[in-house]
Amino acid sequence: xxxxxxxxxxxxxxxxxxxxxxxxxxxxxxxxxxxxxxxxxxxxxxxxxxxxxxxxxxxxxxxxxxxxxxxxxxxxxxxxxxxxxxxxxxxxxxxxxxxxxxxxxxxxxxxxxxxxxxxxxxxxxxxxxxxxxxxxxxxxxxxxxxxxxxxxxxxxxxx
Length: 159
What we know:
- With 159 residues, the chain is mainly α.
- Among the domains are: 1-40; 42-106, Arc Repressor Mutant, subunit A, CATH 1.10.10.10.
- Helices cover 74% and strands 8% of the residues.
- It contains seven helices and three strands.
- The chain has helices spanning 2-40, 44-56, 61-68, 72-84, 106-109, 113-127, 132-157, and strands at 59-60, 88-92, 100-104.
- Strands 1-3-2 form a three-stranded antiparallel sheet.
- β2 (88-92) and β3 (100-104) form a beta hairpin.
- α1 (2-40) packs across α2 and α3 (61-68) crosses α4 (72-84).
């Protein structure tokens, strides 16, 4: 019985610490994006949209609205601002000329790579502390917690 109580208390303590650490990381992620966006001359929605395009590849305005959780009516202005800063361009879909796709102007963004290098290097140092098996467990946790968060967001948004 004593071992069970100790294990239960340890798990409770670990889960509380994990929750606190995750909230702190979430706060720092938002802060990092805000500071990075400011350095790039971007508002939060502009930075978020560029990140979405970096991860997903070219998207239509409707796809940007859906994936970023933005009102469709605001996306045209958002794309106009990003296009005005030469960060994205609108191109016609080669298979359906009625469709317009938004893609990143990679040549323009290449000049900003140096801003990301210190954080990337710091993460490499963190990863070096873990075995491949440990990294696989961490990756599994990230995937599962991301899926749980996506589900919670969909529920909150009434989707």
